[in-house]
Design goal:
With about 475 residues, the chain is α/β, with parallel strands linked by helices. It has three domains: about 5-95, Single Sheet (N-terminal domain of TfIIb), CATH 2.20.25; about 105-175 and about 395-400 and about 410-480, Rossmann fold, CATH 3.40.50; about 190-365, Dimethylsulfoxide Reductase, domain 2, CATH 3.40.228. The protein contains 20 helices and 16 strands.
């Protein structure tokens, strides 16, 4: 009988990341390479993974101009020189026989699933003619452009700007927008977690052992295995991260903010907070303390099902490890306005113990210019911004900028969902076409029927995708 404790299991799971790409070399995958013998000398090509938002540095093993293996880049130390199972599967995606490799044009009713292959030249010609006709009849602002944010979104948005449309949107409001905007509201910038040096981690459903950010996942593994950090998880389901926790509380779905506010209540009214840090760096503390006075652990228990005695105990344990402790601000839990308030409450719990810019806590996002200012020298190289000359400035307002309550999202991807309102109800004006890349609103927006109605009403839809996704199935042209 083999005995396997929690820390040994975590260590074993992490080691598996180094060999996960082996699954891509099974016979079925080699068949996609037409099973031709590879005779050339192999070489390593440095790149980044595009299988999720983290974009881990990778090393691709290439023989005869064919990728045969994907591994982590050894130079990326914070990533452990490894890649997760999803990253390793990038090889299979590349050579999947079901992957679209030629442009497709719809020949049946929209969504009916009838297509014909066309040439790239014909695809581009059709798109240009349709978009220019809409621009001539209704103005360039009648066309929306959307893309998952990251290394490739700029290309599509340059096209939108050259076309004259202000309506460019990322996926932010369907994914990271809540915590990004909460951080901007409270700190004025993005925030990073230092999980690897933390001694106490409180987690609200951020499943890093399943939805992997390789660097942060390894940081949490390091904290648990090497530093003996305690991990407390509030999560409705028994997820992988809950399984690896020291304590797991099956919180009632959608009630995370009550426990977060109750933790803040205990930190303040049991005098556990860092008074010197608050006095020096924080504005609005008195108003916040007055607000959370009513949010007791007993109040939170009645809503969340988390015992009041445990909320109080955890707050005391958390404060005892300050400032090398962190409440993970997570990723996303809801699609309601409560999401923003929840993330602010999580950030507040961190601020109360003074863990900002401290090991094991939170670090403010800083660019090279800021580092160099503190150092008094150019110790950090900056990234060049070549820019694009001669771009016209869109004349119309973006559809989500007419209502100024969304101002904090304007520079962070925009309100993606307003595409539906502008198409179906002409609010604030009518959209007539949608060009999208690396985005699948049929899956990521909450009202699928409304997305279908929107796609059917549009005069023209272009989707850039690797497969015929649920959304791409309603396009007029699919570009692989």
């Amino acid at each position: 009988m083999i005995e396997l404790d929690r820390r040994t299991f975590i260590k074993g799971a992490g080691a598996g990341g180094a060999s996960c790409a082996l699954a891509t070399l099974l016979p079925g995958s080699l068949a996609a390479l037409e099973q031709k013998p590879l005779k050339g000398v192999g070489k390593e090509v440095a790149s980044i993974c595009e299988m999720c938002s983290t974009r881990c540095p990778i090393s691709a093993r290439v023989v005869d101009d064919k990728n045969v293996f994907i591994s982590g880049n050894k130079a990326a130390k914070s990533f452990g020189g490894k890649v997760c199972a999803r990253g390793g599967a990038g090889h299979s995606l590349l050579y999947d026989p079901q992957r679209i490799v030629k442009p497709l044009r719809r020949v049946g009713e929209r969504g009916e699933g009838k297509w014909e292959e066309i040439s790239w030249q014909e695809a581009y010609k059709t798109i240009a003619q349709k978009l220019n006709q809409i621009k001539q009849d209704h103005g360039p602002e009648a066309v929306a452009f959307s893309s998952k944010s990251g290394s490739l979104s700029g290309h599509l948005f340059h096209l939108a700007k050259a076309f004259g449309s202000p309506n460019t949107f990322t996926h932010a409001t369907t994914c990271p927008g809540g915590y990004v905007i909460a951080a901007k509201a409270m700190f004025g910038t993005k925030v990073k977690r230092d999980l690897g040096n933390s001694k106490y981690i409180i987690n609200f459903g951020h499943n890093l052992y399943e939805g992997i950010n390789m660097s942060e996942t390894r940081g949490m593994m390091k904290a648990q295995m090497d530093k003996g950090a305690k991990l407390v998880v509030f999560e409705p389901r028994f997820s992988v991260v809950a399984d690896k926790a020291d304590e797991w509380f099956a919180i009632r779905p959608g009630t995370d903010v009550t426990v977060a506010l109750a933790l803040c209540h205990v930190l303040i009214y049991d005098n556990l907070y860092d008074k010197a840090f608050i006095e020096r760096h924080v504005e609005g503390f008195d108003a916040f303390a007055k607000e959370v006075k009513a949010y007791t652990p007993e109040w939170a228990e009645g809503i969340s099902d988390v015992p009041a005695k445990d909320i109080r105990r955890i707050a005391h344990e958390f404060a005892a490890k300050a400032p090398h402790a962190v409440v993970d601000f997570g990723h996303r839990a809801t699609f309601t306005p409560e999401e923003f308030e929840m993330r602010r409450a999580l950030f507040a719990a961190n601020i109360l113990i003074g863990n900002i810019e401290r090991k094991g806590g939170l670090y403010l996002g800083k660019k090279a210019k800021t580092y160099n200012k503190f150092a008094g020298d150019k110790v950090a190289p900056g990234l060049g911004k070549p820019g694009v000359e001669g771009m016209p400035k869109p004349q119309a307002k973006r559809i989500d900028q007419v209502d100024e309550q969304y101002a904090m999202m304007w520079s962070s991807g925009g309100i993606y969902q307003t595409i539906l309102d502008a198409t179906l109800e002409a609010k604030p004006y009518q959209l007539r076409a949608w060009v999208m890349s690396r985005t699948n609103p049929m899956q990521t927006m909450t009202d699928r029927a409304l997305v279908v109605e929107t796609l059917k009403k549009l005069e023209f839809v272009v989707s850039c995708d690797v497969y015929i996704s649920e959304t791409a199935a309603y396009a007029d042209i699919i570009l692989p």
